[in-house]
Amino acid sequence: MIKVIVNKKLCKGCELCTDACPLKIMVLGDVLNNNGYNYATQKDQDKCTGCMRCALMCPESAIEIYK
Amino acid sequence: MKNIYKKSSIISENAFCPGCLHGVASKLIAEVLEELQIHQKAICVLPVGCGTLNMESLKLDRVVAAHGRAPAVATGLKRSLPDNIVFTYQGDGDLASIGLAEIIHAANRGENITVIFVNNSIYGMTGGQLAPTTLVQQQSTTSKFGRNTSTMGYPIKMAEIITQLESPTLVARQSLDSPRNIIAAKKIIRRAFENQMNHKGFSFVELLSNCPTNWKMKPIDSLDWMRSNVIPYFELGILKDVEGGK
Amino acid sequence: MSQLFMKGNEAIAESAVRAGCEFFAGYPITPQNEIPEYLSWRLDEVGGVFVQGESEVAAVNMIYGASCAGKRVMTSTSGPGLSLKAEGISYLAASRLPAVIVDVARTGAGLGQIKPGQNDYWFVKSPGHGGFKTIVLAPHTVQEAVDLTYMAFDLADRDLAPVIVLADGVIGAMMEAVTLPPFKDTYPDKTSWILNGAENRESRIISSVTNDLNKLESFHVYQKELYESWGRKDVMVESFMASDAEYIIAAYGTSARIAKTAIRILREKGIKIGLIRPITIVPFPYEAFEDLPYNNVKGILVTELCIPSQMIDDIQLGVLKRIPVHTFGRGGGFIFSPEDIIDELNKVFSLED
Q1: For residue B244, what pLDDT is reported?
Q2: Which residues in C222-231 are b (16+ Cβ under 10 Å) and which e?
Q3: How far apart are alpha carbons B185 and B187 in whole angstroms?
Q4: Does B75 reach chain C within 8 Å, measured CB to CB?
Q5: C42-59: pLDDT as tens digits
Q6: Would you tell me the crossing angle of helices B70-80 and B100-108 to the nearest 10 degrees?
Q7: For residue A46, what is the domain's CATH number?
């Protein structure tokens, strides 16, 4: 079981994680954080393999992963 | 559940633009220092430029050097505190333009410091001017029609230049454009700090980065630009890795 | 106390060592070369660090770094190098970092000449951008150069600020008998602010930039109060045969020595003339000129090894044109003689008619 948690306060909606995710299951949500950014979120959580590429790519250290 | 990836405790919210890889460079340093348990001995010499923004987010002892002078400030610090870990964090304007003499001579003296050189081929903080590492034909606010080599010369390959000097013991260039390269970058950053811990002298790590704001690209597109234009010109890898030591 | 016959530059260097200088970074420039040359071997003997930087710009930033670490630091140069160090000195002042900067002045702007001169007076009063001041100490003998360099380290540590010792090529090159001060053994505790790794304490930052504009402005207010405090308690001035004088020579450094000889010659002829010699260029001894007995003093001659005169600006702030103030100087590295001064006095004040 993999849990990918995006810290919505830190996310700046830059989409780098969406590019890094090989399964394209990291996407920008349609909810704004308090800085006005659409923060990233994971869809189809069960597909996630825990490869950590999204977290590696994130310039804000906004993504934490639990396995 | 085990936490297999978490934010380093010595870095807080950064002030870089969305999608700027300065954020990755800075977090890698924080992660490495924490993993090596040397963050409490570390002193960071910050540049003038986007890198200065780390003054708010890196929880280490920091000093903001004058533009281009970080290697000289680091020399004074390291010579005075040989048991501390002293490193500079510099951009291409700071290191390859105004601070070129300082970096060359700190390297040539073999100061036992670590230099992290974030090369995004543009002046970021000041709004996108031509930098020493701006690519041929690349546009900037001071090369509106693209970098004209007959009047503006060619992008400077700093890692190769530093490699020519006798004293440096570790010189490498990595890119931050993809998770795979980020892993490779973290490995070489760790090697560089281990070199300093083991008194192996001057280590230099050039990290290719992006500048969505001043390249006028979406962050994702800036990664593609790096892969098709920047990385082919600035070759990746370890250029020098010798057993130095003092 | 034994006396040594020492060259000015080397005496300044040894004085720094006795004041506890732990880190020196320098760069070759005539007429101060003996200072880095001397310290390049001497500092090793006392466990200090010497670095020859690749430029004066690098050297001043090296002492910036060492000062961040809490070390007592010094650099030395001459006019052209001081121009290159202006940025660094501004950063030292704005970062509240103690440092001693020795300027062994030479003649002329630009490359000028390696001959001595007093051309840096205006520049050292605020040697860098942003509107800051440094204390400036101006010796006129090798002994005084030793004493003022020694004092400069204490003032720097007291105020956490850069301090300038303004000598010149004559003082640097000349040999005189000196009594060297003892090695200092007590130093102020800097552990509360220096950078030495955030171990068991919060991390610290030393910087001349801040995003907190209120903090920046309160620092500027602090600078104002610091400079005013210098005026109240740090002024040093020598009055030489001036109490009953009808004519005053105003001079500092080497030109003051020459003026003293002229004064002795004239005094033997019964002419009442004296010298007022600023020892601190900053804070300038305005009161020494404000409080002259104007019912008795008829005129002032400012003698300087530069053309045009620079110190006259400050003297006029004291004299306020109550009596004539004339200037006499030599440029090009020439040094006037006592007789030259006497001729000038006769020309402008017809003293000996």
Answers
A1: 60
A2: ebeebbeebe
A3: 5
A4: yes
A5: 999 999 999 999 999 999
A6: 30
A7: 3.30.70.20
Contact B147, B140 (CB under 8 A): yes
What domains does chain B contain, in order, with CATH numbers?
A: 22-241 (3.40.50.970)
Which residue shows structure tokens 């109490």?
Answer: C243
User: Which residues does chain B have within 8 Å of residue C206's beta carbon, measured at their own beta carbons?
Assistant: 62-64
Kindly determine whether residue B24 and residue A15, on different chains, have CB atoms separated by under 8 Å: no
For residue range C256-310, what is the model confidence (pLDDT) as tens digits? 999 999 999 999 999 999 999 999 999 999 999 999 999 999 999 999 999 999 9
pTM of the model: 0.96
Using a CB-CB cut-off of 8 Å, the residues of chain A touching B1 are: 1, 3, 66-67
| H/E stretch holding C60 | helix C56-68
All partners of chain B with 3 or more CB pairs under 8 angstroms: A, C
ipTM for the predicted complex = 0.94
| pLDDT (tens digit per residue) in A13-42 | 999 999 999 999 999 999 999 999 999 999
Residue numbers of the domain that contains A41: 3-66
Instruction: Output B188-194 pairs: Cβ under 8 A, ≥24 positions apart.
Output: B188/B238, B189/B28, B189/B29, B189/B32, B189/B116, B190/B32, B190/B35, B190/B36, B192/B114, B192/B116, B193/B32, B193/B33, B193/B36, B193/B38, B193/B85, B193/B87, B193/B114, B194/B36
